[in-house]
Amino acid sequence: MIEMEPVIGLEIHAQLKTATKLFCSCPVARGDEPNSHICEICSGQPGALPRLNARAVELAARAGLALGAEVNEISIFSRKNYFYPDLPNGFQTSQLDPPICQGGGLAIENQTGGKFIRLNRIHLEDDAGKCLHDEQRGQTLVDLNRAGTPLIEIVTEPDLASSAQAVEFIKKLHEILVHLEVTEGRLEEGEFRCDVNISLRPAGAAYLTTRAEIKNLNSFRHVGQAIEYEIERQTGLYDQGQPVIQETRLFDPARQETRSLRSKEEAHDYRYFTQPDLPPVVVTPARLAALRAALPPLPGQIRSRLLAQGLTGEQAAVLLDRRQAVEYFDLASQIFDQPGRLAALMTELLLPACQRDNISPLEARLTPATLAGLARLMADNTLSRRAAYDLFPELWEKGGDPAALARARGVTQVSDAGAIAALAAEIIAAHPAEVQNYRAGQTKILSFLVGQLMRRSQGAANPKLAGEVLTKMLNE
Amino acid sequence: MTEMTETTELYQLTLTEAAAKLQSREISAQELTAACLDRLESTEPALQACLTVLADQALEDAALLDRAGPDPDQLLWGLPLTFKDIYCTKGVRTSAASRMLRRYIPSYDAEVVTRIKKAGAVVLAKTNLDEFAMGSTTEFSAFGPTRNPWNPAKVPGGSSGGAAASIAACQSPGALGTDTGGSIRQPAALCGCVGLKPTYGRVSRYGLIAYASSLDQPGPLARRVIDCARLLQVMAGPDDRDNTVSTRPVDDYLSARPAPLRGLRLGLPRELWESRLDEETSAILKAALKTLEEAGVELKTLSLPHLPHSVAAYYILATAEASTNLARYDGVRYGHRADDPQSLRDLYVASRSEALGPEVRRRILLGTFALSSGYYDAYFKKAAKVRRLIRDDFFRALEECDFLCSPVSPLTAWDFGKFTDDPLTAYQMDLMTLPVNLAGLPGLSLPAGLAPGGLPVGWQLIGRPFGERDLLGAGLALEEAFPPLT
Predict the structure, then answer these.
(1) Among residues A136, A337, B82, B438, which one has the fewest Cβ atoms lying within 10 Å of its Cβ?
(2) Contact A148, A45 (CB under 8 A)
(3) What are A345-395's pLDDT values in tens digits?
């Protein structure tokens, strides 16, 4: 039997982070009353005309620059015509030829080594509204709040050869676009969604075979699962000598399978043509140079820097994954330069709290200065790790000076060797049997004795110092 | 339709005359509005030029204006005007003469409506048209045709036929129409008034119900050239709600003066003058050319070789754009919805089939076909190429003369029903006007004389892009040589 290899290309839709829609001044907002953010333009009223959001063009160009694509000086909007109740104009306004960006790509790394995934294009387009099916009343209602939301569609070449590569690619792409504030990238909100084109061909062949397209995957996990299922399904077809049909399929996460949505014969004839209501989009060389100059460092560059500062790979990844986390970290480490300690406090305490309260780090009352102060108290042994973590909730609520709070709560750590020696003497006197056993070679008993000392100090003793003092006195 | 005399009725005043009398408070806005409404009431049964008459609202608005007093900065202060029923008017039904929108009330005003109102005008009525501006006679209005004031057995032209008939019958001193392939100029010619199609991009299309976006252009109709200048002055200019509108500053059209006829160079496109004109039209226009020549105008016959392809190119491009512009009328959010549809597809098919008229359906089908996969290159792409060639022809020709001059319609106003079963011949009737839209140029239609049968004959001047001021100057000169008919 011929060994087959998967050939995978992706189309990723990312919602651009703009205040207003692509062609009108309605806000881009989620979760509000249906049809509360619509106007004559985004609801397709007679006579309304689109006017292009310049910010969306800049964000698309920025994505292109970050991905090494060529940003076209002139690109054209086209109408993509089809009927659907959530499509108010009866056409989507998209870009066919030329799109705003062409080429570029992204290097990924995985177990099989590095690989460069080429991009075909990035184009701008508007999103549709949503149909809400009311099963009880047997009605379908239309909410146009999302209609006209700006998107970029990023289309790769068919350079991916496994689900792992595909997932690695979209994770990395997501990280870059979120970091550049091109998109908020909230997957659960559908702000970053992926279509997968997949086919099998004899291993090593240079040609492409009939592909299936899996639409609208909005989690990294589903992308991997859908590809796995589809490889299995198509392999099964080849093994049985049956053809793969060109069709659009949907992934059902509950059943872990893809199902046919429509075949090629049922595919729309979109009748693309130049959108006559919009002049060509122009990005002048001067504008492009300014956008390039304003491009912040990319996640890869920041990651290298964070690792050089002593963070673990995992800490760097968490900081890069959260909005404003790196900025917060940089501010804190300018005040107190112990990056590892700060990163630990952020990943273990601060960022989970931000996520819980749904705010970004720089909005927190617990400022970078407060976090730096807390880290300093831990570093000079004024606070135990436990005490520091106990103080965190109050600092999170109120902010303020951690040293003052620690004093007020009386939780500053005893790091005075004399005071600890006095406590150690009390403990040794109170536990003669354990001391004897220790001296007989059962050194594990030390931790029991340290625990007793900590208890007697009501947690205020520095445990490391307590261990050292006890060891020294027991060995005397 | 008489010379100005001491006994001129208020409704007979031209727009410019009325504006002066209003500003000097010789007449009040209410008097003029009331006079126009009376005139409208007495002529409307025979004409049916208007789809909605805003009698009470207009009188109220006029009363408000009178209370505030005239403002010399408001160029249209107190003037009752009409809008073709394809301009969206907030709170006032805007039907596009279609069953689809017969109960549609816009939530916003078109940019032109806003500007006209801001200039102090009173909105008197919404005028009839061919459904969605698709047609040349108003016979395709879902609410019945308008009749020609010169002879009610004849069509008024179209699609702005209601506007032209209303102006010719002195229902109001000025009207706002739209011109996609001749829809202002041809009815102006058939009804014996003046109509201006501005350069594409001179006037905002925001709020104009779209027929063919790359060709549609709002423009004025009135009984005098200088009236059109005044209306254009208010209409023209940049608008950030229409990205296709030019940011070029607006010229001072009101200061246009009649151009000296001696030495004026008029180019006569052979392809238009040698096409088949009816005898009356031909006779009137030839005599008119002779008059011009005697006055010292240099007439120069020249060729625009690609013009014979313009009807084909236009009916591919315009219908292609129309087919997707009208996709929004799907019965989902507003407009006509079929009763009890059995499926989504059924909802679309039934709603659209029931509520869109025969000419609109024909053009949607034509345009959908022209854009379809496998036909796009042969039709749409080729037509777009022809359009560029026609544009180049015009630009070349306009280097050899000051203006081009041509007939507007090959026939004087014709009988109802003459072409309704023969769309191809009907489309050929647009040969004189639609190339100007394909080239995006300004065109001014004005009367050349009255044919022996008692029907007006018009001609048009075609100018350079954004050359409206010069075009109006030439129009004023022709108007002096060929007196207005109304």
Answers:
(1) A136
(2) no
(3) 999 999 999 999 999 999 999 999 999 999 999 888 888 888 889 899 999
